[in-house]
Amino acid sequence: MVAIVTGITGQDGAYLAKLLLSKGYEVIGIVRRNHSILPEKLVYLGIIGRVKLVECDLMDMSSVINIITEYKPTEVYNLAAQSSVGISFHQPIGTIQFNIISVLNLLEAIRLSSPNTKLYQASSSEMYGKVKHLPVTTDTPMHPLSPYAISKASAYWTIVNYRESYGLYACNGVLFNHESFLRSPNFFVKKIISESVKNRSNTEWILKVGNIDVKRDFGFSVKYVEAMWLMLQQDTPQDFMICSGKSITLRSIIEYVFNRLDIPLARYKVDSELFRPTDIDDIYGDNSMAKNILKWEYDCDFYQVLDILIEEEEKAMGKSKSQEK
Ligand code: NAP
User: Fold this and answer.
1) For ligand 1, what atom is nearest to the CA of residue 59?
2) What's the average model confidence in pLDDT over 140-162?
3) Which domains does the chain have, with CATH numbers?
4) Cα separation, 312 vs 325, whole angstroms
5) Residue 75: active-site member
6) Which of 59, 143, 193, 265 is the most buried (most CB within 10 A)?
7) Protein residue whose Cα sits closest to atom 4 of ligand 1
8) Helices of type H across 211-301
9) Which residue lies with its CA nearest to atom 17 of ligand 1?
10) Minimum-distance ligand 1 atom for the alpha carbon of 184
11) pLDDT tens per residue across span 104-114
């Protein structure tokens, strides 16, 4: 079993690679540049020597065809993307170009040179945006509210189109926000936890935040990558909602983290300059299809996930301080 993982240097790519290795796959990770600096998330999980990293420009059709032809992978997990909603407002063209064309290149390469390869596409709840009815299901109409969401919606329909037109085993995992210690520092939950752990005893420190009264459906990346794998083990390809099924405000996350770390609540301030041009007020999904068909087991309460993340952050920060000495 050979699996290609694009975006292997990201949060989900690293956890998914670890899961696939534990299941006996040969894992080929696609990277944009094979630097001399080792990808830190793969190092952190202790799997750097166990995956083969291959350089490939996913925007270049012939490079993608070469990779698919050479490895004839059993499965491809396409996780590479400009993945930040905030950045997509500053880089709309780059986000839309990469997040759509890379998917099309993979689909074409699979169709032309390895039609039995199964493809997982990392879709996002952001596609649903301005929802009228909750919870979100695969029947909910899409109303994207950012360039990122537009790119993911387009990629979603491209996957559906290749499945219906050419019979490819291609499916969308519509994942809602999911977090871990390996989340990049520009994302809300990671930022709140790492900044708070770092500055807990600094009385001068003030955390500035944007609109924290919006609600999101948060989950745990380590468990969400299991659903990605399950989606490619079915008899027929289908799209699934992967979520916790509940939403909570960003404010409640800050207050939970501050209380746990004994930081006074007066140390966070809302700054309207940090508000996004458009934002989703509340969103949560229906995970019953994933639970019933995939037998995906998920019952994590997000405050318990926060406990795990805070502990891991404290441990990692303690380790790096002792290495500095
Ligand atoms: P992430 O940590 O930001 O990782 C993104 C990955 O994509 C990295 O490996 C990055 O490579 C790669 N990438 C970005 N731009 C690229 C480019 N131009 N060429 C090649 N590679 C590029 O994201 P994640 O949280 O693991 O998410 C994985 C996927 O799920 C993404 O597609 C994301 O949009 C989607 N998703 C995530 C969530 C979530 O809550 N995490 C929810 C729904 C959907 P470098 O290391 O080289 O930058």
Assistant:
1) 19
2) 97
3) 2-178+217-242 (3.40.50.720), 184-216+246-280+301-319 (3.90.25.10)
4) 20
5) no
6) 193
7) 10
8) 221-231, 250-260, 288-293
9) 81
10) 2
11) 999 999 999 99
